[in-house]
Amino acid sequence: FSSTQDIKDFALENEFSVRQGYLEESNVNPMIELENMISISKDYETAYKMVTYLDSSLEKTNDLGRI
Description:
Elements: H1 5-13, H2 30-66
């Protein structure tokens, strides 16, 4: 592992400390992330249904052309 100069400069410019006996807090709110995952899942499902619908519509259109 080798550090880049940017990381070295960041460490020198910003003050921080590590304290014994303290717990590190998460920077993620689980409820907000769950809400985002549900929203993305619904968007994906909607897009999948749209593609499936368009695929079946094009298939029917192709079948009409064969007659």
